[in-house]
Amino acid sequence: MPTIVFSSPKGGSSKTTSALILATELAGQGATVTVIDADPNHPIIRWSKRPGKPKGLHVVDDVTENTIIDVIDQCARQTAFVIVDLEGTASQMAPYAVGRADLVLIPTQGSMLDAIEAVKAVKMIQAAEKLVRHPIPAAILITRTSPAIQPRTLKYVQKQFEGAGVTVMRTQIHERDAYKAIFIFGGTLAALDPAEVRNIDTAVSNARHYTKEVLKLLKDNERAAA
């Protein structure tokens, strides 16, 4: 079953947020999902202890550099999707997890400084490809953007990635209060209280478009491999 790894050497890229949004959306569609919380701060484990975790979504955090491959393989046998939230900084665990990935998503903000850090993740994936001796599909996910304003710097960064042959997802993760709120209140975006959180509907719509594109990437990669 598909394993999706979120990797970024830079903190603050919305890596954990992007992983949790995808996991809850997939679970909301009826899929079984395991999230491997490999971040030392365990933000998704803390979220899972709050009320509202979807049925069929499991979170594990007992993972090390020595066990990450076995844990991914075991979880892939048990649930339809495995989502790995890696540590924000570079670690030896990253190439092991990436080597098991059906898709690696690299969240990054739309600045040149963040793009430079994202390139480090791309190079790590390329090195992992040499170890496993097969291509590892990857895509850049632009995060924390405004749905109304697309600055020229963001467009420049996108063109730089595309010019280097790196896939850039069309859907971006917008800056939304709802994405922060699920870590505070628990549960899913759709279950948030409108009296507590603004613009839930737009956040849900953004999350669903994002999830739909991830599923399409997985299918396209599967066809290409076949």
Overview of the structural elements:
There is one protein chain. The chain has helices spanning 15-28, 43-48, 68-78, 93-98, 112-132, 152-163, 177-185, 200-225; strands at 3-6, 33-37, 57-60, 81-85, 103-109, 138-145, 167-168, 173-174. The protein is α/β, with parallel strands linked by helices and 226 residues long. The protein has one domain (3-225): 3-Layer(aba) Sandwich (Rossmann fold), CATH 3.40.50.300. α1 (15-28) packs across α8 (200-225). It is globular, with a radius of gyration of 16 Å.
In short:
The protein has 226 residues and is α/β, with parallel strands linked by helices. It has eight helices and eight strands.
Fold blueprint:
Layout lengths: L2 E4 L8 H14 L4 E5 L5 H6 L8 E4 L7 H11 L2 E5 L7 H6 L4 E7 L2 H21 L5 E8 L6 H12 L3 E2 L4 E2 L2 H9 L14 H26 L1
Parallel strand pairs: 1-4, 1-5, 2-3, 2-4, 5-6, 6-7, 6-8
Helix pairs in contact: 1-8
